[in-house]
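User: quick one - fold this with 4'-deoxy-4'-aminopyridoxal-5'-phosphate bound?
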Amino acid sequence: MSRYMSARFDGLEAYVPGEQPQDMRYVKLNTNESPFPPSPEVRAAVNAAEAERLNRYPDPEGKVLRARLAEMYGVEPDNVFLANGSDELLFFAFLAFCDGERPVAFPSISYGFYPVYAQLLRLPYTEVPLREGFVLDPADYCGLGKNIVIANPNAPTGRAISTADIEEIVRSNPDHVVLIDEAYVDFGGESCLPLIHKYDNLLVCQTFSKFRSLAGGRLGFALAGGGLIAGLEKIRYSINSYNINRLTAAAALATLDSNGYYLENSKKIQASRAYAAAELDKLGFETLPSLANFIFTRCPRMEGGALYQALKAKGVLVRHWDRPEISDWLRVTIGTREQMDIFLDKVREILKEAG
Ligand code: PMP
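Assistant: Sure. Structure tokens for the protein plus 4'-deoxy-4'-aminopyridoxal-5'-phosphate:
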């Protein structure tokens, strides 16, 4: 590290994103992207005419997109916040709502950025253990008296809790913000969005990266009461008021004109998820029930890291973490049916070679 680097980051362990090889050598099932390209409407919207306008800054208020999202979700534009991916949104929320007196809590096994943001901002934080089978027990969060961040469905497990359970958590922590990260809600899950009309401490975050095939565009959004949104806006205008670039805004708007296409893709992904889990079951794997576009699975005969490496050597990338609690497990993004067949074939090969 450079001697010019501030010592306050000495202990910080940065987030490690999944591998993004820039050639297409791999069947890429490691970062929960959609295997399907954006709809034709998106390709038409991000055209030469739009590129020509890149000499001008984008609308810092994102008015058109916020109005469209507001209409779609039955809220006012003041209830919608746009960010450069939900990662940025999460960072703004940690910055806006947490401090020494307002600590934050999240599940011990969840999205890796939560502890990184807490450490970066030097926030006191609690990692609430999951129960047997990676089950999140809502009772662990009721009346906790801390800000709370929960991914629902959770990552990397894919397990979800009900809206009734979320309501109980939100209702019992009236003086704290409850952030529900719904990055994976569009693959069979249920959004708790209607609750924002009832509770001013609920912040619901979603993303265009998964269901809307726009991971490369970087767009996340939050829906909440006007108070929380105004807080996020204050932070955004203090860091980067032009956080949504023109091409992304145009692409995102166009996805909203092709909802049918994305719903079809989601159905295909849900079918491939059930298929892959059933085939893995035949091979003796244990797979958690998932409502996301990935599955969390383990092979009783092979350590997770070894299976990850063997798959990589055969051209299939999945995600594995070197953490003792989950080192047996692999997170496998659901690709196309063809990609899942390649993945399954490689798994069968590897098990056969292992004898
Ligand atoms: N939340 C969760 C739970 C995620 O898994 C991810 C993606 N890795 C994100 C948020 C961030 O997604 P994005 O920044 O692409 O919107």
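One thing worth noting: The chain has a mean pLDDT of 97.
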